[in-house]
Amino acid sequence: MGEKRCEEHCLCREMEQLLDEQQRLAFEGFRFVCEKIGYDTIPFVLSNGKCAFEVFGRTKKGLFFTTQVFRLENLDTRHGCATLSLLLPVDMDGHPVEFCNDVFSLVKTDNCIMVDLTCFCSIKPLSPKLVNRELPIIEPKC
């Protein structure tokens, strides 16, 4: 089987741009700019054209979850693949939820997967403000 060329696939170019913007957002690679704005992730959903890509992950407490939301960690343009970390969708109480329901925050995890980018045809970026968004403190009513 021949070597895949990332530049032949539109999604690879999109992922290259996403990684570049994510690095600039996090001020990575700057020599003189060191101020952090609090965002270092552009979360996104991948699709094969029919449905969103979904995987299982595991929290530090050992609970399993499913997610459709990822962070691009590394891109291998030579082989057309990417390393993605899983983002855990949670509600206002910090409990895992399905992505389509009541997502308040996307929590970074240590779970990573490698994907073949030729299997996907679209990417939908989400707001960086969702990542590790602080949960509200709800005072009990007296």
What does this molecule look like?
With about 140 residues, the protein is mostly beta strands. The protein has one domain (about 5-130). Helices cover about 10% and strands about 30% of the residues. The chain has one helix spanning about 10-25; strands spanning about 45, 55-60, 65, 70-75, 80-90, 105-115, 120-125. Strands 4-5-6 form a 3-stranded antiparallel beta sheet. A hairpin with a 4-residue loop joins β4 and β5 (about 80-90). The protein is globular, with a radius of gyration of 17 Å. It starts with 9 loop residues before the first helix and ends in a 17-residue tail after the last strand.
Question: Secondary-structure blueprint of this entry?
Answer:
Blueprint: H1 10-25, E1 44-47, E2 55-58, E3 64-67, E4 70-76, E5 81-90, E6 105-116, E7 122-125
Antiparallel strand pairs: 1-7, 2-3, 4-5, 5-6
Shape: globular
Overall average pLDDT: 86
Spans of at least 5 consecutive residues with low confidence: none
Number of helices: 1
SSE string, helices as H and strands as E:
HEEEEEEE
Give the DSSP E fraction (strand runs of 2 or more residues).
25-35%
Observed structural traits:
142 residues; mainly beta; three-stranded antiparallel β-sheet; two-stranded antiparallel sheet; globular; 11% helix; 1 helix
What can be said about this structure in brief?
The protein has 142 residues and is mainly beta. It has one domain.
